[in-house]
Design goal:
The chain is about 70% helix and about 0% strand. By secondary structure, the chain is mainly alpha-helical. It has one domain. The chain is elongated, with a radius of gyration of 28 Å.
Length: about 220
Amino acid sequence: MCRISAERGKLAYYGIKPNMWVMVRPWLIGAVILLILLLILLWLKQPIPDDAKANTSSQETAKDAVEISVIIFGFVFGYIQWIMARYESSLDKFYDRLDVANNRLGAMVDQSWSQATPGTLPPFNVYTPPDPVGVSLFDMWVFAELDNLEYVVEKYTWGFLTPTLACRAVETFKSRCVHDKTFTERALNFAAASGYRKTTRIIVERIRSDIQPLAELQQPDGR
């Protein structure tokens, strides 16, 4: 339990927090279960009539209240779960399609280098984009890491992912930044200018702030 609390605290430090629904959901479910139990107890405590075949109006009312409440709460809870399942499915499909687009762009970059006429392009450099495309292979890697980070954060925010996995994703992204200053700077630029969520930009900015004291990292030649 302490480990989970520490992981949630670490995520909160980077601005990653569950939304209100995730925080309220356990209490809401508990309240609904408690209310149903109280209604059932109310129904069971109704006095037993002298005639076993007869039912008093109060018993009928309590019984109807229990049945109606169970049906309503069951329907509402089922509907909410259905909506959440649809959102999770839409989220997965969106990032799947985004990955397809990124793969196609990466293939274009690769073909631009491999099929270029000798002398028309500068010597191959993973950090340099070929003129016909405008992004480098290194840029595509940065985009892929940003997409993965944003995907994990969004799933955690809506309660589809555990704090442990979300923390692992953030630490993995941070390790990329620690070992490559160019990665950090380009991730920051892309997060700010390529339509990523505000939370993603905050994470990258906080990571860069954290690793600035380790700025002795040297850039490879040609970046």
